[in-house]
Amino acid sequence: MGSHSSSDKVTNTGRRHIIGALGASILAGGASQAVAQSLGFPAPPAGLGKRPYPNLLRPLSDKKRKFGYAIVGLGKYAVNQILPAFAECEHARLAALVSGDIEKARRLGNHYGIEESHLYTYDNFDKIAQDPDVDAVYIILPNSLHADFTIRSFRAGKHVMCEKPMALNAEECQRMIDAGKKAGKELMIGYRCHFDPITHKAVALARSGVIGTPQIITTDNGDNTDPTDPTYQWRLTRSLSGGGALMDLGIYGINGSRYMLNEDPVEVQATIMPPTDPMFRQIDETIVWIMRYRSGAVAHGSASFNVNAMSRFNLQGTKGSMRMDPATSYWCNTVSLCKTGDTQTWSTPMFTINELNQFSAQLDHLPISIANGTRVAATGEEGMQDVRLIQAIYKAAHSGRPVSTDWGDWRKTI
Ligand code: NAD
Question: Which of 164, 185, 201, 259 is catalytic?
């Protein structure tokens, strides 16, 4: 599910053939800056274009013992994206599996070499406290179960990686943050795009001044829904999902806008379109929103559960624009710079899984941060800010009025 699902069809072999020397130089910033300058953009300040998280560049000195994750919830995302990603991790390894279906856990355990003693059900999950191989629990369950399993994991003395959206509401998020602090353990939210090299490139460009002052952001995320597939069923049920297209897909646009601008919106407005199919009666099928920033920038976004896959991000500045399409794919994001009046003249090539696997980088980031004593890239407070904004957007849509989100700087609370 997600605006990224279309890219699942790209085969491994296909991806491995796409990268070339140009990709490597673009990651390093060389070719991209040369092309940008030939279009009349000024050179970005030195140092930009590198990964924004310096601790990602500092490898752990002790490579003997890899950091063990227990994966909770063996659904589509866990099985298709996260479990295979351990093969490319430098610091993390799969240590345990947790599922409601013990036969499924056994099958996957056989495949990944996980012994029966490291297989758990949701009912006996708390026994994981006695499993010394498990350092962290990665929660990949329906949204309504994130808070409960995060708090149980902290009680078991483990660190936590929790999927987005962090929880159903800000109160649940706060309880998760408090439980982590009480346990003295890290909480990280699974914002994989923060580990995507193309996204890093885009953030560096956005903040470099190369397109002038950012003025208008447009984000669109959507996908079709198959009500016969279990992965969509809980998403259509409000008590399990907390909301529809906004919770599941719009969150990429919300987080992405804040990430690009390095700023939080102070007011939101929104409209939820009437459902076109009864299957969407409990949740937002299609929603559009506006987020106003103090800097003067405005972000308008849409999310839908009833469109052909879309995943777009456009940042329009006073001197040019930056486009990502797709913006949140698993493997093949692109970024390009454009000048007013020009057609698209420059874009990055696809990156192969060998160059930097965003899932493996995300899994490695938690142990590296813990070992280095540095803050994780996506904290619980970051995840909570998105959930608060989602709640404000729903409130604005239901009231038909703008809603203030001028809550002060959440970064000062951590
Ligand atoms: P999924 O439906 O494919 O998997 C969910 C798993 O939870 C299944 O194994 C299911 O059996 C289990 N489960 C346990 N209790 C359940 C219950 N009461 N109802 C339904 N299922 C129950 O879903 P998914 O696509 O893997 O999504 C799981 C989480 O991962 C969600 O929070 C989603 O937002 C997130 N996700 C993130 C990304 C990303 O790119 N970061 C992508 C997809 C999903």
Answer: 164
